[in-house]
Model the fold of this input.
Amino acid sequence: MAVEPLSQKEIEDRLAELPGWSVEGDRLTRTYRLGSHFAATALVVHIARIQDELDHHSDLTLGYNTVSLSVNTHSVGGVVTRKDFELAHRVEDIAPGHGSH
Done:
């Protein structure tokens, strides 16, 4: 299936299923706040594994006890697609508290 940009309505509908996620400019974003730097670092490792499995990679930023993701699909002009939401759902599945912000 070809990857196509999502319409604004499709993006809004999909965001409703992902509390804590938002679209900033042309990127799907989320920041997680964790209990420690070690927990944040562990989450980064798990996210990296998921990204390799999906062959779809976000910009990933590790802070003291935070992890931030920012993603779009470069192959279709740097816009938000279903691939970005697939990654977001996979990350939510493994994030502590399933969406603790």
Q: What stands out?
A: The chain is about 40% helix and 20% strand. Residues 37-54 form the longest helix (18 residues).
